Amino acid sequence: MRGHNTAARPFDISQIEGEIHEAVVHRTPHIQPVDSVPRVLAVPDYVNHREDATEIGKLSAEAIVREYELTAKEIEAVGEFVKEMAQRCEQLTTSASAMLKDIKATAARYRKEGKRIFNEIESCSSATDEVRQLCETFRDRIAAKAPEGMT
Predict the structure, then answer these.
(1) CB-count exposure of residue 129 (10 Å: 0-12, 13-18, 19+)
(2) Which strand (E) or helix (H) includes residue 123?
(3) Whole-angstrom distance, CA of residue 120 vs CA of residue 114
(4) Cα separation, 71 vs 21, whole angstroms
(5) Per-residue confidence (pLDDT) for residue 40, from 0 to 100
(6) CA 146 to CA 138: how far, in whole Å?
(7) DSSP sequence for 61-111
(8) pTM for this entry
C-alpha cells in the first residue's frame, strides 16, 4: 500500500490565516444584550436596586452584597460556635458550683471533727491531770499516815 505515490501537500500558514480573517470579517457578531442575561442569584431581602442605577452598577452591587452576605453567614456560624461554647461554660459553671458546695461541706465536716478531737484531747488531758493530782494526794496521805520508819 505504501507503494502508491501520494504526495502530501505542504502546510500553507498564509492560507489558514486568510480563512480565519475571512471568517472574522464576514461573520456577524453574536451580541446578546445585558438585559436578557438571566440573574443566577437574587439579592438579599435587605437591599433593593435604585431606579437610576446602571446595569453595570446593579451587577457590581449585587456581587458585592453577595460577598458581604456570605461573610455575614460565616460570622453567624462563628456566633453559633460561641453560643455552644457559652452553653458548655454554663454547664461547667453549674458543675463547678456543685463541686464548690461539696468542698465547703467537706471542709466544714473536717473543722467540726477537728473541734471534736480538740475538745476530746483537752478533756482527756484535764481528766489525766485530775487523776494524777488525785494519785499524788492519795500518795501524800498514805505517806503521812505511815509510820516513820517505813518511809
Answers:
(1) exposed
(2) helix 55-145
(3) 10
(4) 48
(5) 57
(6) 12
(7) HHHHHHHHHHHHHHHHHHHHHHHHHHHHHHHHHHHHHHHHHHHHHHHHHHH
(8) 0.44
Buried b (16+ CB within 10 A) or exposed e, 97-111: eeeeeeeeeeeeeee
pLDDT one-digit tens code per residue, 4-63: 555 556 667 777 777 777 777 776 666 666 565 555 568 899 999 999 999 999 999 999
- For the record, the C-alpha cell of 130 comes out as 485530775
Q: What angle do CA 60, 33, 36 make, to 5 degrees?
A: 80
Q: Does 15 or 131 have the greater pLDDT score? A: 131
Report which DSSP code applies to 38: P
**Spatial contact of 33 and 12, defined as CB atoms under 8 Å apart:** no
Buried-state track 33-63, b at ≥16 Cβ within 10 A, e below 16? eeeeeeeeeebeeeeeeeeeeeeeeeeeebe
Average pLDDT of the chain, as a whole number: 85
CB 53 within 8 A of CB 65: no
Q: Say how many Å lie between the first and final Cα of the chain, rounded.
A: 155
